[in-house]
Amino acid sequence: xxxxxxxxxxxxxxxxxxxxxxxxxxxxxxxxxxxxxxxxxxxxxxxxxxxxxxxxxxxxxxxxxxxxxxxxxxxxxxxxxxxxxxxxxxxxxxxxxxxxxxxxxxxxxxxxxxxxxxxxxxxxxxxxxxxxxxxxxxxxxxxxxxxxxxxxxxxxxxxxxxxxxxxxxxxxxxxxxxxxxxxxxxxxxxxxxxxxxxxxxxxxxxxxxxxxxxxxxxxxxxxxxxxxxxxxxxxxxxxxxxxxxxxxxxxxxxxxxxxxxxxxxxxxxxxxxxxxxxxxxxxxxxxxxxxxxxxxxxxxxxxxxxxxxxxxxxxxxxxxxxxxxxxxxxxxxxxxxxxxxxxxxxxxxxxxxxxxxxxxxxxxxxxxxxxxxxxxxxxxxxxxxxxxxxxxxxxxxxxxxxxxxxxxxxxxxxxxxxxxxxxxxxxxxxxxxxxxxxxxxxxxxxxx
Amino acid sequence: xxxxxxxxxxxxxxxxxxxxxxxxxxxxxxxxxxxxxxxxxxxxxxxxxxxxxxxxxxxxxxxxxxxxxxxxxxxxxxxxxxxxxxxxxxxxxxxxxxxxxxxxxxxxxxxx
Lengths: 448, 112
Fold this sequence. Notes:
The complex is a heterodimer. Chain A is mainly alpha-helical. Chain A has helices at 6-33, 39-66, 96-114, 124-147, 160-165, 173-191, 207-226, 234-262, 267-281, 290-307, 310-314, 322-340, 361-391, 398-403, 405-410, 422-431, 438-441, and strands at 90-91, 94-95. Chain A has one domain (6-391): Ammonium transporter AmtB like domains (Ammonium transporter fold), CATH 1.10.3430.10. Chain A is built from 17 helices and two strands. Chain A has a two-stranded antiparallel ribbon with strand order 1-2. Chain A is globular. Residues 423-448 of chain A have low confidence and may be disordered. The mean pLDDT of chain B is 93. Chain B has a single domain, classed as Alpha-Beta Plaits. In chain B, the strands form two sheets. Chain B has a four-stranded antiparallel sheet, covered by helices on one side. The longest helix of chain B is centred in the C-terminal third of the chain and has 12 residues, at 70-81. Chain B is elongated. By secondary structure, chain B is of the alpha+beta class. In chain B, helix 1 (13-23) runs antiparallel to helix 2. Chain B is built from two helices and six strands, in the order βαββββαβ. Chain A binds chain B through residues 198, 201, 203-204, 258, 261-264, 266, 268-269, 272, 305-306, 308-309, 312, 321, 324, 421-424, 426, and chain B through 31-34, 44-52, 57.
C-alpha cells in the first residue's frame, strides 16, 4: 500500500510552481524578440494559455491524459472528468492532485511555445480557439502516450510510448518540445509570412526582456526536469545537475558558433543557446551522466545555432525560431538519449545507449517516438490551423499588421513613445506607419 | 542673425554645451535625430541574420547668434565636437530674418 511521502510531495508542489513560472518567462523571452508594436500580443498569447488550459485541464484534460487507458495506449478515458475521484487519492508517494497540478503546468506551456511561430499577425480569438482545440486533440493524447505509465498507482493502463515502446522521455522532449515545434512549423506555413518578411528588418525590440525571460525559463526548468522524478530522490538530483550543465554547455556552444561565424557573441545567442540546451536535456536529464549531459548540451547548442537559419532557406516565417530551437533541439535531445544513456542512471532500468555498448535498440525506440509525436502533431496542427483559417480567419488584416497587432487586438500599446520625443518618437512613428497620432488613437477602430 | 545648426555625436553634447556657455551663448535647442553621412550605418546580427542599420543616432544642436558671432560659434562647436574619427557630424549656418522673444515681444538682436 503506497504511503504519502511529505518530502516528495513538497518537492513536486514546489516544482509545479516552478514550471508555471516558465510560461511568463517564455512570454518575456518571446516578447523581447518581437517588435515594439506586437509585444503585448506576444505576452498575451502565453498568459491566455495559463488561464484557458487550467480550466480545460480540470474539466477533461487530466482525464484524457492520465485517466485509465481508453484504447490502445492512445488516450485516457473520462473517469476523472472534473477531477472526479482524485481528492484524497495517491499517485505513488504524492497526492494525485499534486501530480495533476504538476502535469497541468506542462499542458500550459506547450501550446504557449507554439505562439512564437506566429508573432505579429495572428487574430487573438483565433489563437484562443486554436490553443483550446490543440491541447484537446494533440497535447492531451500525446501526454497520455508519453507520460502515462500504467500501474503507477493512479491508473491501470498507460500510454503506448511510455509503456509499450519504452522510449525514454523524462520530462517532455517529445510530448512538449517536438510536439510544440512541429505544430509551430505547421502554423507558420498555414498563416504565411509576415508582411515584408524577410526583406524588411524585424529585429528584437528589447533584448534585456529576452534575457530576463531566458533566466526565468532556466530557473523554472529545474522544476520541469528534476520535478519529473515525482520524488525528492537520486533521480531528481541527477536530473537537476544534468539540466544545469547541459544548459551551460549549450549556451557556450551557441556563442562560440556565433563568434566563429558572425564575428561577435551576442546576448540573444547566449539566451537562445541556454534554451536550446534546456530543450535538449529535457528528455535526457535522468538517463545521462553529467559528462554525457555536457556533450549533449554542446551538440544541441551548436546544432540549433545553425538550425535557426533554415527558415530563410526554406522560406517559412517561423518568427521566433520555435522550429529551430524546440523542434530541432527536441529531436537532437531525444535521439541523443539513445546514444548517451547509461545504466549508472537508475531511471534507465539498466539500459545502455549506443556509446556504452547498448547497440541501436534504444536509439531506434527514440526515433519511433520522435517520428510519431512530430508527425501526429504536424498533421493535426496543420489541419486544425487550416480549418480555423478558412472559417473564422487566423490572420489580422494587413493594415492592422502594419499598425501593430497590440493596437488591433487589444487596444493597447506597450510603450508610450509619443511623449519621449526625439529618436524614440521617430522610431515609434516609423514602426506604425499608418497609426494616427496619439490623440486620435483613442478613437481608432478596434478589431474584436 | 544666423541660425547655427550642428549634428554631432551624442556623447559630445556636453562638451559643446560647455564651450557655447563659456562663449556667452544664452540658449540653445537640442533634439535627438538619426541619420548617416559618409560613414553610413552599421550591421547588427541576430541569430545569424544580418540587419543593416542605416541611421545612426545623433544630436542636433541649434543656436541663434548675431551675424558677427557666427564664425566663432561654428569654430567652437567644431573644436568641441571633434574626435577625428568618422561620423563626427556637420555644422552649418543660415541667415535668419526675424527673431521674436515670445514673453516680451522684443525683436531682432535684442531677442537673442
